[in-house]
Each structure stands twice: as C-alpha cells, then as structure tokens.
Amino acid sequence: MDYLLLLLSSCKHWSTYRGNDSRDRWRNREVEEEYFALYVDATFLSVRRGGVSKEPVYVVVRLTCEGRREILGFLVLQ
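Structure for Mutator family transposase, as requested:
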C-alpha cells in the first residue's frame, strides 16, 4: 500500500507518520486467518496533491468470529 492512511479521531497530517516504527509494525503485523466476514468499501475524502481533490479511499475491515472488528488496511489510488 503506497498510501496508508490512519484515520484517527485526532487526525494528524500523513507526513507525521512517515518513517514511524509503529506504522511499520502495524503493516507487518500477523493477521489471523479465520474471520467471520470481510468488508471492502470506499469513501471519498479530500486529498492534497498540488491541489485538493476528492479521491476514493478504499477500506478493508474484517469481522472476527468473536465479533471484533479489525482494520486490515486503507488504500488511496492515484
């Protein structure tokens, strides 16, 4: 994923996450193989690249058999 977005309640600019060890640990974490459901959806957010434009952010969330939701990833395509 070239553009991993961490959408937190206290959002920070993406550049603050570049080179961050916690981001690398999250991307390389072990993911359980069993899950109840897998959701793939997109939402349009304003993305700044020279100018500001609305671009789709694809979100992948899995639901475990225990009912826990886990974000597997975000992706913004150019």
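Helices lie at 21-27.
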